[in-house]
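Researcher: Structure prediction, please.
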Amino acid sequence: MGRIHTPHGVIDSPAFMPVGTQATVKTMSPEELKMMDAHIILSNTYHLFIRPGHEIVRRAGGLHKFMNWDRPILTDSGGFQVFSLSNMRKIKEEGVEFRSHLNGDKLFLSPEKAMEIQNALGSDIMMAFDECAPYPAEYDYVKQSLERTTRWAERCLQAHARPHDQALFAIIQGGMYEDLRRQSAADLTSMDFPGYAIGGLSVGEPKDIMNRMLESTVPLLPHGKPRYLMGVGSPDALIDGSIRGIDMFDCVLPTRIARNGTTMTSSGRLVIRNAKFAEDFGPLDPECSCYTCTNYSRAYIRHLIKADETFGIRLTTYHNLHFLLQLMRDVRQAIMEDRLLDFREAFFTKYGLFENTRGF
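Model: Predicted structure follows.
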């Protein structure tokens, strides 16, 4: 267990970060996120660059004031979103040309521009601009990609205008090739960033490959600096990542599946839309103390979801986020008591993860 200090508060680690892509965690208010004791949230550089524009956020006093959130914020670099626009972008050494997913306008994002945007947003932790190689990808392509990411990371350091109050993390790439991961880690740690993220995982590869990449990469990272596994949020991956030394995680999974009526409970995945819950007047999870489980029944939540009522999505979202935040509190307690492996076995057994490979 560790503690990460930022200008807007301390983050106990390992920690899960709810994703607030467009300066809001979908359907949740900042007050509700505080009720469930979220220490930090993540916002998206690409989306805020597109709309409303980073200059508007800067004039509002920064992202914290703009969205009324006084706890830590991490912003990603925008790289993952840009590179996901595979048919709408062109990679150059200078940066990436792409078209807006909103109106097709031609735009350009470079390491320098990513720093300018994130400096204007004012996040506590900001990410270097990187290229996220797809899975699967050929060795030579991944090698060229990670070497470009390294050059871009150096440019990000040079362009970063607020190192005194914004920590810049580098992103280690290398696909599913252990030697390339080692190369990326060696190159980036030599630049002495305040923290390091592991990117390019949880992109469709089997869980055992992801864990193997973590096992070969995490030991190469400096002690005493945060280690962030990007885009991971299933309970099994949070526990397995914590075992392997990861401090920070983020993912849209809990909010995305909540909008489809899928919830995480202490005994496994529960799809509240199912007809068998129509007259079930118990809570989503009898072992959960969240606002949703304390006040509302499965039958009522099912009715709301079936009727396309927004309140139903709010309730399932609240529960899923609370579930993962509580899971990380339990993980931290297990670390303090030196029983994390025993905790993993008990959780996986009860949650059905030894049989269910879907992970949630």
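Model: The mean pLDDT is 95.
Researcher: Thanks, that helps.
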